[in-house]
């Protein structure tokens, strides 16, 4: 069981850290630094999550930050300025030591409807 937990953390790190940072289209030095900061923020968040202390879920979960970054990438058409600002906000939210309402608010249907409506509006404009 402990090996499975470590593999799950590694899978989360590669999926929600490394793979999501590739959305930032590393072209220049500043973009590479931003990608590195995003990956390190995911790493820090996962360290807090897997510390073994019950209810030590501080910072925005990396799953949600990756979902937000991916949605912004799709809805903005890959606008790099919007992606950079969103990535900076997600980095700050992930390393923030405040508590977030994980399950009740973030898994509700309300925000999913907002994202769906934004996607429909974006699709209508194309």
Task: Provide a descriptive summary of the structure in words.
The chain crosses the membrane at residues 33-57, 63-95. This is Transmembrane protein. Keywords: Membrane, Transmembrane, Transmembrane helix. This protein has helices at 2-21, 29-49, 62-75, 80-95, 102-106, 109-125. Helices cover 74% and strands 0% of the residues. 19% of the residues are buried. Helix 1 (2-21) packs antiparallel against helix 2.
Question: How is this structure best summarized?
Answer:
It contains six helices and no strands. By secondary structure, the chain is mainly alpha-helical. Helix 1 (2-21) packs antiparallel against helix 2 (29-49).
Tell me the overall shape.
globular
Percent helix range: over 70%
| Count of distinct strands | 0
Radius of gyration: 15 Å
- Major pleated sheet: none
Residue share in β-strands: under 5%
List the defining traits of the structure above:
74% helix, 6 helices, transmembrane, mainly alpha
What is the strand and helix layout of this fold?
Layout: H1 2-21, H2 29-49, H3 62-75, H4 80-95, H5 102-106, H6 109-125
Helix pairs in contact: 1-2, 1-3, 2-4, 3-4
């Amino acid at each position: 069981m402990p090996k499975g937990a470590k593999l799950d953390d590694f899978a989360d790190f590669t999926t929600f850290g490394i793979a999501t940072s590739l959305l930032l289209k590393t072209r220049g030095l500043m973009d590479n630094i931003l990608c590195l900061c995003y990956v390190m923020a995911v790493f820090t968040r996962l360290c807090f999550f897997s510390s073994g202390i019950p209810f030590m879920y501080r910072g925005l979960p990396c799953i949600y930050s990756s979902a937000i970054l991916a949605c912004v990438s799709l809805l903005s058409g890959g606008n790099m300025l919007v992606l950079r600002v969103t990535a900076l906000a997600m980095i700050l939210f992930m390393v923030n030591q405040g508590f977030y309402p994980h399950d009740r608010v973030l898994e509700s249907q309300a925000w999913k409807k907002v994202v769906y409506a934004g996607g429909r509006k974006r699709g209508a404009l194309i």
